[in-house]
Structure prediction request, 419 residues.
Amino acid sequence: MKTVQVAIVTGQALAILIPVLQYRPANVVLLLSEVMKNKGEGEHLRQLLIKHCNLKESDVRVVEGLPDHNYDSIVDYIMNLSDDLNDEFEPKNITYNITGGNKLMAAAVLEVIEGEPCRAIYNDTANNQIEFIRPGSDRKVEPMKTLLTIESSLAATHKTLRKHALDDWEQAALSRKALTFWLANNVRPKSLEEGKDSPLQHFLGVINREARAPLDEINNKRNVKPSGLTVKLNQAPRGGWFYDFKRLSGDKLINWSDEKPDYVCFQDESSLRYFGGGGWMEEYAWLVGKEAGCDEVLANVEVTDDIKKSANVRNELDVILRKGNRIVIVECKTGKMGSDANKDQNMIYKLDSIGKQIGLFTEKVLLSSRRLDRDAGKFKVHNSERAKSHEIIAFDADKLPEFENWVKLWVEGKLYPVS
Prediction:
């Protein structure tokens, strides 16, 4: 049976990709307006369907010249197209996807196919379903199947997944799961006093600082001798810090002894990244996603922008979770917030921007081991309100353990109240 799905090209490629993945037509015809042609959407969508829907080059064609205004002109275009398709396919095997384009285009399609046995569908992404509108005798609603991967979701938005953390990283994260969850659950300041860090936050800040120098050497591709992993502390740990060092040495991330309490040796590059690069927070987000039952969880993700390939624009995403067709992008921060307003604002803007680009089914989450808001004398920093204004769900030091419940409910398709 020779089937064809006809779709109006739109800037939201998922609106077209999903019905093709769900119903697997033998052919796809893309209707392209001048506006979408100038944006390169026609060829992008064509290549997307060929790669991710197992279609051949000859199976996907682009028909240019779709008017974007003047209803009579749009009707004439659709009528000519319909005549050509009816000559090539049985009308009952033709499906029009009217999700893309503007209202005039959708209305023109419905007018032209009135009385024909061909179908018209609408991809209702908000409600995770596909509606059959024409013919009236075939009107029904079907749930959207799980069809997307992280890679195809990124590809639909002009992004290529270049790399992510592999098995070695995952095994290391699993091996220190107990420590990672302990850090996340104990980093909250006991004092509600504005700007007051907890002893554990202060301790992690010191360890982060000490890990930075050898980590920078590694990042600059310089060989770091084992002796370079040993650093001298400004003062020997005491009080709560003494027991924190004892715990970390017991977990074999650092070598530390109370016989030489002012020296600490990081075990290897992995332990350096765990402390110096905020790695423990990324591992926490990855572990939470794994334990909650996400279909895919990727960490240390690098993507490139395909719109201007020559510019080689790269974005690094800390963690991406996927359940079904839905995605969560997680940004992890262990540094102090509020001391550099521009830096904070750029970080929030970056997360908001990439979330909007990836689009239809994406949530944006910010995890911070420090408080987002600070009272810096005359200047009050309100990063939590800024994040909320960009529809970013934020879990800072006061709320970090709540991230686990949020992910569990998100996996189940439920909403979680975040104040």
Remarks:
- The chain has a mean pLDDT of 85.
